[in-house]
Design a protein that fits this description.
mainly alpha
Length: 79
Amino acid sequence: MRQALDEVRQIVESLEQTLEQMEEVRELVELAERQQSADEREIESLRRALRRIQPPRDYKGMPREPATKNPPPPASSDD
């Protein structure tokens, strides 16, 4: 009977240690999720900033020419 009680205590201790480890893993996962959310917000912020300073690209991957209201006058041929 004594041996059975000792084995039960060891099992309980092992389960308690496992529970502590699982709680640590849960905390790490929550931290990683918070960091991921913060990283995603930062990436989106950087994308918005890049769009403000870089012209959008057309379907061929080339930068679009900025649309101007008054195109430059044609070059004269006064050679």
